[in-house]
Amino acid sequence: MQDMKRAPLLSLLLALGVSHADARVRLGDTLPAHPWVSAGREVVVVYTHDCGDLGGLWSAVLSSGLPVHAVNAEDISTPAPGGLKPWRGPEATAFARALRVGTYPTVLLVQSGRILNAWEGTFSGNLGPME
Fold first, then answer.
1. Containing domain of residue 21, as a range?
2. 71, CA 20 to 30 Å: which among 81, 85, 104, 130?
3. What is the dihedral of CA 3, 83, 72, 70, to 10 degrees?
4. pLDDT of the chain along its 131 residues, tens only?
5. Cα–Cα distance measured from residue 24 to residue 118, given in angstroms and rounded to the nearest whole number
6. Signal peptide span per the entry (predicted)?
7. Half-sphere exposure (CA, 13 Å, Cβ side) for 36?
8. Does residue 127 sit within a domain?
9. How much is the pLDDT for 20?
10. What's this model's pTM, rounded to 2 decimal places?
11. CATH code assigned at 100
């Protein structure tokens, strides 16, 4: 098994690809209006106060080497790690609903404003074999 630190983007892509959750976010869709300047490739994490411990998820996302945007939806302020300033408030919740987020947390891999991959659900921290 590879160490996540040696292949962070691969680890993130594998984590996003092995979800058992039924994502309703549509691949290929463009992101709804948001307050940040989009990078070429980026990660967007949409979460709420009741997601539980997201330490493993945040670690994987922050280790990806990609710009990360935190969206704290549903009106209860919850911090994000690593110096990230989460987007909060009614507009952040509207963003999540426009995406049709079915389960929090939701992680989006985005390229030029379009959703390449989406993962919804509880993160166990186990990425499985990565050979």
1. 8-120
2. 130
3. -50
4. 444 444 455 556 555 554 444 547 888 899 999 999 988 899 999 999 878 778 888 888 888 889 999 999 998 888 888 789 999 999 999 999 999 988 889 999 999 999 988 888 766 554 333 33
5. 9
6. 1-23
7. 21
8. no
9. 43
10. 0.78
11. 3.40.30.10
In a domain, 25, yes or no: yes
- The label of the residue with tokens 């590879």 reads 2
Q: Which structure tokens are listed for 97?
A: 């609903």
In angstroms, the CA 66 to CA 63 distance is 8
Q: Note the maximum CA span of the chain.
A: 42
Neighbours of 93 (CB within 10 A): 18
Domain count within the chain: 1
In a domain, 2, yes or no: no
- Contact between 87 and 33 under an 8 Å Cβ cutoff? The reply is no
Q: What is the pLDDT of residues 66-86, one digit of tens each?
A: 999 999 999 888 888 878 999
- Give the tokens for residue 70: 């935190």
Distance of CA 92 to the CA centre of its chain: 14
